[in-house]
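Task card 7
Instruction: Convert sequence to structure tokens.
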Amino acid sequence: MSDIGAPVRRPYRVGYAPGAYDLFHIGHLNILRHARSQCDYLVAGVVSDEMAELAKGRRPMIPLVERLEIVRSVKYVDAAFVETVPDKVETWKQVRFDVIFKGDDWRGTPKGDKLEKDFAAHGVDVVYFPYTVHTSSTQLRRALDALAGPAPAPGQVTGERR
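Output:
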């Protein structure tokens, strides 16, 4: 009997891949591609501007509505969800995923350990994927800041000839 045309069996039914997805790059695409290969339905959590600022100390360069549209348009993503609370368990109560996917830069860290402990109580697995070290939004932001040069001092007039 042939399995051609039979549905692919994946380890999880609903997966969740949260992130800021600012300055969308190959690392983001890799996480979403790998996550989708592990579940039947993938929800990408896009962190709100306020949540990103709370977590990273700065707002994303790309506004939420644009980041949401970019992520929603990726073929591996079945749905996009705006994260507005820092507690991932609160997000789980709304989305009800079976597995959460994170970059392996979280593995063995206090925040990764807390994530695993919190979700173990709800029967949700935490799966880590390789972090793309050669490209990150932080690196891209630094490069853009370097290209822009130093910011003018408050009250300084720019572009004026004397």
